[in-house]
């Protein structure tokens, strides 16, 4: 936990500096001093502070510390409230630990971090807002880290309802009869493959003006992905974490609601399992969709774009969304290209993409825009249907263009987080092993920035 200093005695004192040696320690009876090196550059960034705070918090915990006093003055002087927020976030996210179901659990002692030097940064407000956001990022991590038998579509819906109970949001869970009545054939092509029935989860936060149309956050919720009849080869990670996009939009909207951000937002999570059964869809099938567009199935392992297509249509037609952001662990292609460093983005509106970049600059999350040249549209052409759901190469671009067809003229962003939803070789110190909660922080800031526009 992070608190403002109230004069309590502490065992550790942390000093953030742009000089000195990293991890410099002075031992003795007095409180131990830890010097946290921020590098030698003249320009200090929020991400520098986020990483430094993460490293320091982890180190203090390893050394058995129960409390520490952090001098936040350099962060506040350099970046004001954003610097203080980054400091808090780095420490809190670094200390996250996965859920487990062991009979005997090793309980780690809590670490209390106290901040001093926060004058002039609206510290109480920044601390409150950031701590709420961090808690929901950790909630998203918990959902993604759960094994498939602990998070079927029905259990995911129940988790969302339970998490929302004390917040001023409206949660609606549409069952298979209701979604079938809406004509969501693409959603059901995937969802009907499992004995665990699909669910469409809708969360509405109305913090803005009544007449303002909401921003829609649409998150892929494939709770387990076998690949269907295009069976995934070998033991692949991420089969049970293919609902990271759904977890992220849930966390983002609940953080917005708890912090009472004055903006209207709707989250839509199409939750399914992609399994093999007598009712599973097959390569070569031609299916419909809620939008009326027909789709030729090139691969049953390209299922995420099918459920997102119907969810995007639902957000625009039924929720009257003025802007749409979809986020998904969509393609292995983006993971092979960008690794765990950056997510891929496709956009049909330059202004909306610029707003995403501004939000990401503060969140520390990285996004790289993919091209959408006209030539690429050949990738999703079909001789027998309106669209083709797979491609021979350029997989991440093809997937984005497929979804663009359902967004139409509505300003739209597509975030492919397949390489960044779990920690990897290039992960940050505040991203322990497992799910990262990628996208929550950026979407929160993106929606917060829309308030009043």
- Extended strand count: 18
Task: Count up the helices.
Answer: 12
Termini gap: 34 Å
Structural class: alpha/beta
Helix fraction bin: 25-40%
Query: What's the pLDDT, averaged over the residues?
Result: 92
Specify the biggest β-sheet: 9 strands, mixed
Assign an overall shape.
Answer: globular
Low-pLDDT segments, ≥5 res: 20-29
Radius of gyration: 23 Å
What percent of residues are in strands?
A: 15-25%
Task: Report the order of strands and helices.
Answer: EEEEHEHEHHEHHEEEHEEEHEHEHEEHEH
Could you give a quick summary of the protein structure above?
The protein is an alpha/beta fold. The chain is built from twelve helices and 18 strands.
Task: Write a structural description.
By secondary structure, this protein is an alpha/beta fold. 36% of the residues lie in helices and 19% in strands. The protein has helices at 46-62, 73-94, 123-145, 153-164, 176-181, 185-191, 244-258, 304-317, 332-338, 350-363, 395-407, 440-450, and strands at 2-4, 12-17, 24-26, 32-37, 67-71, 112-116, 170-174, 199-206, 215-219, 221-225, 264-274, 286-287, 295-296, 323-328, 343-347, 367-369, 387-388, 412-416. Strands 7, 8, 9, 10, 11, 14, 15, 16 and 18 form a nine-stranded mixed beta sheet that branches. Strands 1-6-5-2-4-3 form a six-stranded mixed beta sheet, with helices on one face. Strands 12-13-17 form a three-stranded mixed beta sheet. Strand 12 (286-287) and strand 13 (295-296) form a beta hairpin. Helix 1 (46-62) packs across helix 2, helix 2 packs parallel to helix 3 and helix 7 crosses helix 12 (440-450). The longest helix has 23 residues, at 123-145. It is globular and about 70 Å long.
